[in-house]
């Protein structure tokens, strides 16, 4: 029996287990001169999988009711796909989901930081220098540390 | 909150999701001259994880009530650990578990082949040349194809 002819709806706890294995809470701060502070905060929730199991990513999308399936950007051969959710409205739903259904690995720590970032963004704090500094420091504590060019270039933080 | 101070018991569906991400059903056929046919069939169920999340492997062991936690043999740095279950009695329980709680990815196919191998072993067919051939052909269909030296060296199979 292949994965393609599986019609079952996913279970919430299954999604948590799969996320503990294959999921990623990621926040980047990207230089975008057009924005008022010159920096954009970009939070994402991703689940990466070999393309042979793409169907399960579509089921995850169906479960949440949002997100997109695309080629994983780190994969130059195009054999790895990802479910990706962006946007505050969707990510607040992702946070609700994992608050109700606890992660069991150290990804819980990343999720907690991710939640704090989304909370700051809900309050529009990422649009202030102070909020941006706070977010940069928060995400530097994540398990999978993203490159934080903002931290390297931040005058304020370098002085502290 | 780290993973270490999580006291929750694991949920069956979480284990399935985590296995769909990180688990592996593996069967090797090893040359052991002391055995009657000269070959040993060795089935294993493994879940591999970075050592920082070793605690979740111990919870998996606790859930099943058997298995061992050890350094992943493919890891020369010793930073990856694995839950490993061996032995027919334990593996029959693993099969019962995943029959009740379906895998959602293509690992379901590997599980199905793994179950067939265990079924043959329950009937002691692995102790006959015919059964050994059957097992070798079965495992050559697995997603993660193990090296099957037995197939390469089998006179019978080479002639067919």
Structural class of chain A: alpha+beta
Terminal-residue CA separation of chain A: 59 Å
Q: Largest sheet of chain A, order of strands side by side? A: 1-2-4-3
Measured by residues with Cβ under 8 Å of the partner chain's Cβ, the largest interface is: A-B, 31 and 31 residues
Quaternary state, please?
A: homodimer
Mean pLDDT of chain A equals 88
The helix tally of chain A amounts to 7
Major beta-sheet overview of chain A: 4 strands, antiparallel
H/E series of chain A: HEEHEEHHHHH
Commentary on this structure:
- The structure is a homodimer of 160-residue chains.
- With 160 residues, chain A is an alpha+beta fold.
- In chain A, 45% of the residues lie in helices and 19% in strands.
- Chain A has helices spanning 12-22, 54-64, 88-100, 107-122, 129-139, 149-153, 155-159, and strands at residues 23-31, 39-50, 68-71, 80-85.
- In chain A, strands 1-2-4-3 form a four-stranded antiparallel β-sheet.
- Mean pLDDT of chain A is 88; it is low at 1-6.
- The interface between A and B is medium-sized, with 31 and 31 residues.
Give the helix/strand layout.
The structure is a homodimer of 160-residue chains.
Chain A: H1 12-22, E1 23-31, E2 39-50, H2 54-64, E3 68-71, E4 80-85, H3 88-100, H4 107-122, H5 129-139, H6 149-153, H7 155-159
Antiparallel strand pairs in A: 1-2, 2-4, 3-4
Helix pairs in contact in A: 3-4, 4-5
Supply database-style keywords.
160 residues, disordered N terminus, globular, 45% helix, 4-stranded antiparallel beta sheet, alpha+beta, homodimer, 7 helices
């Amino acid at each position: 029996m292949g994965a393609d002819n599986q019609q079952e709806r996913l279970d919430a706890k299954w999604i948590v287990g799969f996320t503990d294995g294959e999921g990623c809470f990621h926040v980047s701060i990207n230089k975008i001169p057009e924005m008022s502070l010159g920096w954009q905060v970009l939070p994402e929730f991703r689940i990466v999988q070999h393309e042979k199991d793409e169907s399960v990513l579509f089921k995850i999308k169906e479960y949440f009711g949002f997100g997109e399936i695309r080629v994983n950007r780190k994969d130059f051969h195009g054999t790895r796909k990802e479910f990706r959710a962006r946007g505050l409205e969707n990510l607040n739903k992702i946070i609700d989901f994992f608050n109700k259904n606890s992660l069991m690995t150290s990804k819980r720590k990343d999720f907690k930081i991710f939640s704090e970032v989304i909370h700051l963004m809900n309050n529009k704090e990422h649009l202030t220098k102070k909020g941006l500094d706070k977010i940069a420091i928060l995400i530097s504590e994540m398990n999978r540390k993203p490159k934080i060019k903002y931290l390297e270039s931040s005058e304020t933080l370098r002085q502290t």
